[in-house]
Amino acid sequence: MGVKLAALALLLVASIAVAAPRVVRGVVTHEGSVQPTSGASVLSERGAIAVTDVDGFFSIQVDTRDRELTIVANGFITRTVRIVDGLLKIGLAQASGAEV
Known about the structure:
This protein is an alpha+beta fold. 17% of the residues lie in helices and 36% in strands. It is built from 1 helix and 7 strands, in the order αβββββββ. The longest helix is centred in the first third of the chain and has 17 residues, at 2-18. 19% of the residues are buried.
């Protein structure tokens, strides 16, 4: 009985470690330039939200099941990007009017 209980405890600890959220970092700029996009909202598939700082940087804690982020900013076309390892570099295209 003790061995089964120890194995179950080990399994629970392992599943908690695997399910731990991760932090994704990135920078949002105006498409085709290095000009930062401050105040952009970065949204995960499961409801996490971050806002870019004055330099366009963000840090967001996402669920391990999240695969994409959606970036929304006034005056720009909304963009969805795939989460990858490393710093995400995301360029937003300016909206022409109909998209705003």
